[in-house]
Structure formats: structure tokens, C-alpha cells
């Protein structure tokens, strides 16, 4: 089936099997491999992207459901050479080790900050509950999100 | 280095990060060479079963299927490599695809190769395998009872090996004791769960007779040597690349069936073959960690002095061994005395086959088990003797003047100051205030608990002779003609950040900027033969190799500069991108200019070859022994059994730190994993050997909202085992945390008279323990 979708601001058309998952369309058809798969059961959040500005787990969204929508992946978050504040702060605060959870974590955090511009640590920890990181113990991720929120408020 | 270090010791941001935070890095599954075919495996749903027949006819004609492989077509591939054995261990042969029997749920039987990812899984589901399910072996104790079903029909029993270690005389030590405390404890099987599952992409070019194997591994050279051997290919025709690797924690320190299978198939078909593990496959077929059930006996004097410590343990091997299955249990024995002066120790281990995937190295690998039982016993003994948990520990610490300290397990601890780390932690936690808070809370019917863990671990694996081979690491440093430097490391980091810390090491030694140093690793065609990253050895052993290779290059550059300046090579200094004569600093040249001299080679110093490229293989003289104290404050809700961690204070002594930012990151992650084992994590099996919780939905692992903020402090006791004075940090957090958390929970429950609950301390277990005491 044909799917029209805007990815990171660019309109694109794909011909895929109806059962194709959004994450596979992004990775295999659109060649955007920054979105990762780590559980395929909607628990880990590694596959998180923004679908019309809402964070979704793209391993449990059919590509067909994204028909006509706007998708933002980690590759589309920076503004040209200018890193997004979340990217900057994850780097600054050492919020990643192996990096596999990072794209999903950043996009979830983006949604969190969009709905709460000044989150407490507890709110952040609660907000990223649906994203698993096996490397960092989360502390630096919390600090990175908190610092990015502050930067975005300025 | 004459000048003060500029980069070593500084919390420099990682150079790996820009690609990772923008989604531009490449893990195995991110490579898609044209024409790639996908592999999927039909796997056993049973813990143990006979295979009556295998019918691949439907799968073979499914759309897009290119080839199907069973045992018959693949029996020429060598079995899964096994090492680190003990004498007289039974060693079952692990085939690549199962033949007449499957011995654990997830064991692969048929491989299907198809044009697409979805097509391959569809076709694997069309494979018809007629199984006759058999009784499975799940429980370790039951496995050894006469009449138990057997994992391997052709062995007499499920006993895999018997191994022991003894120092002093435990019987005499127990006789000497005023009190003897005993307990039975479990270190449950847990799943490592690197967030990136395993994956492999193999591409053979028949014209070049050259294979490239991208695989998510911690040990690319081991993969090359061993997989090439399995498929009968000269290893110098194979290039193994560990690209970006999404975590390992020991689980990728191994050689797995799918690697040999993909390599075999691409050689047959001449096109790239890709296999990427699903999370359920990861739970079923990637190694697990821990898996010990044992009985402990500990003798003490009334003043708390330990006189004997004995551990009789059953060790869960799984159905087959992986690379280091057996060796991991021996590490428990080596670390049995922990940070204490225990003259008499003994461990008697019996390896047990079960119908499960193999256990092997998981972060800490044998040491967390030792630390857990020892630190739990310290608390149990403290209660018995009416001592404070701090005092009983102090009583048994060696003094710092006693280092190097020889233990009854036969190790020599390099350096340490255990009292200092404990003092620092007590001060940071404000221990008296914590106790007062606990006292107050109890009056209000709230259950707070304080838990200690004073640990020492064995790191920097390690002298080659002590490890049964390959304890060294390699590095090559090249100064390029333009004055940039490139490090080629045999270590294979996968999140630890050595692309940054190794650059720091080289930058300081050569007086250049860390941004002018590039670090390359994980490509067997490019880096010198290496051992890999595991056992907290990346910086300790790998970084030391970098130091020596760097110094060799520096010495050579000094010769060129000395020739140019007509000075003595020993009088040449490197600083801020300049090379100059120390005693006559006006004689100075740019670092790049001196580099170019070596490459133009128009004039050569005596006995000197052109070029600036040096290799070093570093062989450590001993292990390193990082140590520390973790203090945890928990609150237990007696009505629900829920545990909340209120404070976590950790003092870790990892020797000198190259980059404190990275050190803290390692400790955070380690504490999280160890806490997971203490409170939540455990693989559960049904009677038939099927895992009951093999998904993220059912296996609890730490989430952000379940963990506290960690308060980290350090003491610094360098080691003289390596030139960096670094001890290693990859596993400290995991080792220190598990007992500290459990001890805190048990301390909280002391008013109920509870002295032990087996991990993981899930609410239900805690609640039941309370309910039992209340009844
Ligand atoms: S891969 Fe989508 S939530 Fe885990
Ligand atoms: S950085 Fe590795 S899983 Fe988060």
C-alpha cells in the first residue's frame, strides 16, 4: 500500500506491506536508523518518535496509521548545526553511555517538557518511566532533562 | 610526563556523543548492504524434547525464501566454543542447530534465509517440527536427586563439575569460634539485557575470498579466531567489526551460534546475511548471569573476629556451557574472603546442568555473588553478636599498612584503605543521624533500614597466566604527518567512553589537544590483535597499553627533535603543541613539524626508522582490587511489602580516575543493575523449562522512578600494577549495591525478627515474610 507521510519536514511516499510497522518504515524504507528497536512490545521506548508532535512508540504503530501525519525522528530534532537543548544537555551531563536508548529517551523528554516546562526530578523520573536505559542508572538523564528544560525556558 | 596533566583526571565530555544524540551512529542493524538477506530461526518451545521430525517443505517454498538450513546442512560447523574449564568438567558439545534433541527453550533447530525481515520470520513459523516433550530439569537441588530427569541422556547425572578452593583450615576455624551462623542463600538467575539485542551481519566476497562480519560483541578478535575456526576459514580472511555496540555487561563476551551460522551461510550464498535478535530471543538465548544456591557457615569470636567461612554451592550452568560459564563460578571462590582477614575459607561448588540457556559473565561475574553472601553474613553475624554492622566490619579489615595483602584464597590485593572508605561513607551519610531517624520512624510505625556493603573486587583482568591466557591488551599509537594522533586499541568499548579517555591519555603524553587524537577500536583489520572489553579491564589494561605505545612514539619523536636541535633526546619536552629543548626553550618547533620530519625522513637520527607508529602489548603483573563502602537507607511498607530507597551513599575507590564523568556514569549504571538484582530481577521458569517472564513486560528491571539519586564520593588509593594507577570501575557499582540494598531491607524488618529473605525482594516476598512473623 502507498503511504504518504512527512518525515522531519519532508513529504515522502512509500510503498509498503499493510502490516509494516512505523519503526520499520522509518528504519528500512526511509533509511533513518536513529530510531531503535529494543523490545517490540511497547515497553522500552527505544523506538519513540513524535507523531504529530505526540511521542509514540513506533514499534507498535502501523505505518498506515501515520498516513498523512508528520513524524519527527531523532535525526530531525537538531536545527541544522544547532543541537536541540535536549541533545546538548544529554551530551553535557553524560546522559548516555551505549546510546541505544538515547534517541527514544530524548524524544520522550521532549514531549515531557512540552507539557511541563519546569518539571521536578520526580516528575521527570515518572515521565520517562516508559523508557528503559540499562546503562546510566537514569541520574544523568534526569539531570540532562532538567537542564534542557531550564535552557528551553530561558 | 614532566608537566602536570591537563586532560587526565578532567571530566571531559565524551567525543562519542554527537553521533549518538543525533541518531547518526551505526549499530549492526543500521548497516544494509545491497542484496542483504535476512535470517530467522525456528526455535524450541520446550525445555527438553526429542525431535521426531523436521519438515521444512512449506517454509522452503514460502514467498521470498532463498534457503533453509537444518542440522544436516550445518553439521560441518564446529560447536560453540567453550573455555575457562576446571579439571574433569563434563563438556557437552553445543551444536549450531539442534539434531535429535533440544535442551532448552529457545534452542535453534532450523534457519530460514529470506529476502525480507518479515518474510524470514513468516517462513520460520511455517517450519513444522514434531517434538516429543520430555521432563525438564529446572531446580538445582532437585536436579541432583537420584531419579531426577537428566539434561544430557548420555551423562550419568546432572552434575557438570565439582570444584573447590580452600585456604587455611575451616574445620579448625569453626572449632575456634564462639558462635557459628548459618544461612542458605540464593543468587537468582538474572538476564543481562543490554538494550541493543545481539545482531550479526556477515558478508563474504568470493572473488576476494574475504569475509566481513559485523557483530554486536565485546570481543571482536575472539570472534574472529573462533568463528573462523568453526567454519574452517583462515582467520586472516575474516574481518570482524564491532560497530557501535548498545551495551554488553558480559553478555556479548561470547561466541554465539548465530555468528557462525551467518558466516557459514554467507560463504555458501555469497550475499550479505543479517540476523538481529528479538527481545524474546534475547531472554531465551543470550546468556544469563548468577544462578547460585548455597549454604554458608561462618564462625566468629565473640568480639566479631571471623574464624572461618564456608560456602557449599550449587551452580546453575544451563544445558550447555558458553565461553566462560565454568570460570565465572571460580571467581566467586577467589573473592570469598572479600575485604576481611579470614584465615580459613572454603568453597565447594557443584556445577549443575539444567534445561536452560547457559549462565556466563554478567556484570561482576562471580564477584557480586561472593560479595552478596559475605556481606549478608556479616549482618547476620552482627545481629547474632549484638554488634553494630559497622563495628563487625572494622574488626576484620586489614589495615592499610598490611597491603599488599595476601588472602587465604591465594590472591594478593594490590592496595587499599578500607577504613578510610568506610569513614568517608559514614560521614557523608551522617550515620548517627540516620540511626536516630530510624529510631524516630519506628515510634511512628514506619520501618526504615540501613544497609552496608563494604566490598573489594577483582578487576583489570588480568595476568595472562592467572586467567588461563589472554590477560593482556594491545594498543598502537600513530602520530600522523600533520601532527594529529590516532590510537588503535585492542579493547572494544561499547558505551564506556574510551574514545574520550584514551584521547586524554595520549594528549597529555604528547602535549597536544585531546581533540587532535582519534581513537579507533573494534575492527580486526585495523587494530592490533586485542582481547576486548570486560572484567573492568578496558582502561586498566587497554589504557596502560596506550600509555606505553604513546611513550614509545614520544621517545622516537624526541630523537628527531634532538637531531634537529642538536640536543640530547632526554632533554626534549612536549607541551601545548610544541616540542622544545628543556634547557634551551628557544629551541622549539611545532609538534606537526617534528612529525613531518619523521615522515619526510630526509634526515634520520642514528638507528631510527622513518615514521611514527608504535605498538605495545601490555601484560599486567597482577589484578587490581578496587573497593568501597555503600550505605543505603530504605523504607519498607509493611502493609504492601514495597521497598523504597530513600538514600544511597557510595564511596568507591577505583584508584586514579582518567575521566571522573565516565567513572560516575559507570558507578550509577552499576548501582542500578545491582539494585535491580536485589529488588526485582529474576528469571522464572515453569516446570517444563519454559521461561515465564521472558519479556520486558514480565521481567522487572529498574526504571527511573524506582531509583534514588546516588550520592557518590571517592577515596583514591592508586595501584602500582599499571602506569595509570587506575583500578577499573565497570563492575564496582553492581558488586557494592546488591548486598547494601538487601541489608537495608532486612535491617528495616528487624523489629519483626526477620534475619534473611532471598532476593529479589519483591513486595510479595517481603510482605509474606512479614505476614509469617506476624502470624
Ligand atoms: S522497541 Fe518499541 S517500545 Fe521497545
Ligand atoms: S545508554 Fe545504554 S541503554 Fe541507555
The mean pLDDT of chain B is: 97
Tell me the CATH topology of the largest domain in chain A: Ubiquitin-like (UB roll)
> How many structurally independent domains of chain B?
3
SSE pattern of chain A, N- to C-terminal = EEHEEEHHHH
Tell me the total number of β-strands of chain B.
28
Shape of chain B: globular
CATH superfamily of the largest domain in chain A, by name, is Beta-grasp domain
Number of domains of chain A: 2
Main CATH class of the largest domain in chain A: Alpha Beta
Quote the distance from N terminus to C terminus of chain A: 45 Å
Secondary structure class of chain B reads alpha+beta
**Small molecules held by this entry:** FE2/S2 (inorganic) cluster
Oligomer: heterodimer
What is the CATH topology of the largest domain in chain B?
Aldehyde Oxidoreductase, domain 4
The poorly predicted ranges of chain B are none
Largest interface: A-B, 58 and 56 residues
Lateral arrangement of strands in the main beta sheet of chain B: 3-5-1-12-9-10-11
Q: What's the rounded overall pLDDT mean of chain A?
A: 97
How large a portion of the residues of chain B is in β-strands, by DSSP E?
15-25%
Radius of gyration of chain A: 15 Å
Which CATH architecture of the largest domain in chain A is right?
Roll
Summarize the helices and strands and which ones pair or pack.
The complex is a heterodimer of chains A (154) and B (775).
Chain A: E1 2-7, E2 10-15, H1 22-29, E3 48-51, E4 54-57, E5 70-72, H2 85-92, H3 102-115, H4 121-127, H5 139-153
Parallel strand pairs in A: 1-5
Antiparallel strand pairs in A: 1-2, 3-4, 3-5
Helix pairs in contact in A: 2-5
Chain B: H1 17-21, E1 37-43, E2 49-55, H2 57-60, E3 65-69, H3 71-74, E4 101-102, E5 108-114, H4 117-126, E6 128-133, H5 140-143, E7 159-167, H6 170-176, E8 179-190, E9 199-205, E10 210-215, H7 220-231, E11 238-241, H8 257-269, E12 273-276, H9 279-285, E13 289-300, E14 306-318, H10 325-334, E15 345-353, H11 367-385, H12 389-396, E16 405-406, E17 412-413, H13 418-429, H14 431-443, E18 447-456, H15 464-467, E19 473-479, E20 485-489, H16 498-510, E21 517-521, H17 538-565, E22 572-575, E23 578-581, E24 584-590, H18 591-600, E25 613-618, E26 627-636, E27 643-653, H19 660-679, E28 710-714, H20 732-748, H21 763-774
Parallel strand pairs in B: 1-12, 10-11, 14-15, 20-21, 27-28
Antiparallel strand pairs in B: 1-5, 2-4, 2-6, 3-5, 7-15, 8-13, 9-10, 9-12, 13-14, 16-17, 18-26, 19-20, 19-25, 22-23, 23-24, 26-27
Helix pairs in contact in B: 7-8, 10-11, 11-20, 13-14, 16-17, 19-20
Bound molecules: FE2/S2 (inorganic) cluster (FES) (2 copies).
One FE2/S2 (inorganic) cluster is lined by residues 37-40, 42-47, 57, 59 of chain A.
